[in-house]
Amino acid sequence: MVKLSAELIEQAAQYTNPVRDRELDLRGYKIPVLENLGATLDQFDTIDFSDNEIRKLDGFPLLKRLKTLLMNNNRICRVGENLEQALPSMRELILTSNNIQELGDLDPLASVKTLTLLSLLRNPVTNKKHYRLYVINKIPQIHVLDFQKVKLKERQEAEKMFKGKRGAQLAKDIAKRTKTFTPGAAVQQLEKKKMGPSPADVEAIKNAIANASSLAEVERLKGLLQAGQIPGREIRHGAPEMVEEEEETEENGVVHMEPDIQMECAGGENMRPEGMVGVHGHLEMVKAVEEVKLVEGEKKQADDDESEEDMDEDSPVNGS
Question: Which UniProt keywords apply (predicted)?
């Protein structure tokens, strides 16, 4: 993708088109956002933004001269508000092959009183019921819609359909808008939909980690979690009695793991095993088990050394 910079605007092709309008050619640069258009110095009647990656029709400075905007083959799904203030002379808007979904997404165009030609061909919105009559009603000054002249009969039908309280209610019902991103809203909605692990599953996972006594056991638990299984269930169901949680974790040296595991399980996405036992938690668990094994090994070695010394002192020397 290429940023729409002042340098790009200065270097782009500029010419007089067949209808004798001054045109700026910004076609095919894969531009994602409309910006820095003040660099045009309002010297163009037509700007061609075809074949880019633009998602929102917005970001225009005041361009009094601009009459035609070619936006076909982009990804536009939203139309900005107050376009009439930035583009007071816009007559023709080509939005062919974009991604406008709902009739309500077209409402901002109603304020552009100079708009007489509009193309929405190959947009999902054209498949909506009453699409053409809705647009004619919303933009009554439109002369050509989707390269077809608006007939008097269509204007009368549109006026009749959306007239009065019933018509206003119908327009309100079908003028749904595409939902847009609100910071934090998606996270809250996702949290509502999450199906986190049950308290029994959390308990089982904690017990399984607390009872791990070797690296081989740790690797086995990791494999079970990655396979989507709860290893603690087997341990919990197979054991006659379970010792208190705090005592078990203290004996196995993994007390510091409990908050991490509890946090990951409570917020893990769709109960993914990797979310329940994160990489950091796994490394901490392995380190704790290794420390326990090292301490036990040193203690055992010390006991063996003491027993050998005792045997040397007690054993009789040959010839004594």
Answer: Leucine-rich repeat, mRNA processing, mRNA splicing, Nucleus, Repeat, Spliceosome
Ramachandran sector of residue 41 (left: φ over 0; alpha: ψ -120 to 50; beta: rest): left
CA angle centred on 205, ends 199 and 210, rounded to 5°? 125
In the chain (320 residues long), the average pLDDT of successive 10-residue segments reads 92 94 95 95 96 95 96 96 94 96 93 96 93 94 96 93 85 70 53 63 78 77 70 48 43 44 41 42 52 58 62 51
Per DSSP, the residues of 177-198 read ------TTHHHHHHHHH--PPP
* Contact yes or no for 95/117 (Cβ under 8 A): no
pTM over 0.90: no
Q: Assess contact for 112 and 81: CB atoms under 8 A.
A: no
The angle at the Cα of 176, spanning 175 to 182, to the nearest 5 degrees, equals 140
